[in-house]
Write a structure and sequence with these properties.
Structural class: mainly alpha
Distance between the termini: 46 Å
Number of domains: 1
Radius of gyration: 17 Å
Shape: globular
Order of helices and strands: HHHHHH
Number of helices: 6
Amino acid sequence: MREHYIADPGYVLNSCDYSQQELVALAQTCYTEYGFSIMRDLINNDIDLHGYIAARVGKKFEDLPRIDAEDLELIALYKGRIDLFKKEDKDRFKFLRALAKALNFGSEFGELILCTVLVVEMETVTT
């Protein structure tokens, strides 16, 4: 689509892609408001949020302890599980990641994303 836009002579078109900007803002808001945010920990540890939700729905973390942003070995295990899921079951991962993406961005700051955050956050607090 971008190739259909042409700058006038003497002008330049610029485009920026802020990766998951809305989720980053929401994660920081949760942290500021409640003192913790799993989403913030995932983002700060360079874990793909959509891939994380896909792997969680795909039950790839059931034998792992609750994620801890300070435990770099555990973070590496989570990343490894996501990568392994992506490689070993490519079609299922792609499908679940697309669902996670729709859930996360589908109703921008609507009920679905807040439910996702609350479920993940509450699961962490209660386990």
